[in-house]
Amino acid sequence: MTESAQRPVCRVLDGEAVWPPPAWIMRQAGRYLPEYRATRAAAGSFLTLCYDPALATEVTLQPIRRFGFDASILFSDILVVPDALGCEFRLDPGEGPRLRPVTSGRDLDRMPATLPLDRLAPVFEAVRRIRAALPDETALLGFCGAPWTVASYMVAGQGTPDQGPAHAADRQDPAFMAALIDRLVEASIVYLGAQLEAGADAVQIFESHAGSLGPEAFRRLSLDPIGRIVAGLRARVPGARVIVFPRGRGDSLADVAALQVSAVGIDQDTDLATAVATLPAGTASQGNIDPLVLIEGGAALDRAVDAMLAAVRGRPHIANLGHGITPPTPPENVARMLARIRAAG
Ligand code: 1CP
What we know:
This protein is of the alpha/beta class. 50% of the residues lie in helices and 12% in strands.
């Protein structure tokens, strides 16, 4: 049995410049894969996939079997946390996620004070099963959404282009927004801690909607709460490896690194060489190939891979996209990208 610390992704997260860099891609289990679409159709609903340990294990392993990525990410969603808090997450065909909105202190009072872990037991069971089924050298990543990103869905009851409803709630009732964020900080510590205890090697915190926050709000609603999650998690699970992905915040990566994270995720709108120069030597980077170039494939993809490799040579890096893979991506382009990374001399 390989020790967790020997898995290449873990070595990078522990600060080692592994070469060629290990690779996985965000949303690697998903609609671009015919086997995912088939399993989802048979399951009937997205939430069944999330809450049935056998099905969650199956779809998590599909991209590992097909491509042999260096990391596997638990198949679930950031919105299972609000679901467990009573917000009734739904994803109907052809629509985005829907939740029962939480817009006031009174709504918060109706929510359980602490995250009901029994409701999420199938997720932890999936983590145990995935770890048991994975190749020894493949790392297993757990995840959650950062408080601001999750709060933006909870306040609106759905996805929004600019997180307008959450910004309005923060302006009109900052005490409510602070209390909602605090609740999510506590829930995230407990949730990620349980994923690590079930066998995840590391966790990623997705701050997908960091880009719409101004500097003051970014510090208050994103950086500070994420910092409290990292510290709280390490108090519970010493040495916990944490990747933070502050999408749209290429200007603030050093501030994110200062939260003592293991790695900072970098989106495709950020110049990789410039970004990594702002990180401490021991803080790993992750990213940042453009998902659109992965759709295109061919020579354009080869150039993007080479540019990524050139920007991170000599430092701890995990090869990835700058955001999630999208449904029109030909799976053979993923294989081409991985082969080129692995051939890097
Ligand atoms: O089959 C389908 O139609 C479901 C599409 C889908 C999938 C495949 C959703 C609904 N969630 C997921 C899985 C998922 N979501 C994973 C699985 C692991 C993997 O990466 O393979 C992860 C990590 C997430 C995380 C997630 N969910 C984020 C953060 C990352 C990101 O992409 O920015 C966000 C913002 C969500 C919310 C969500 N869930 C689903 C969708 C389509 C969305 C975004 C919708 C929106 O904002 O309108």
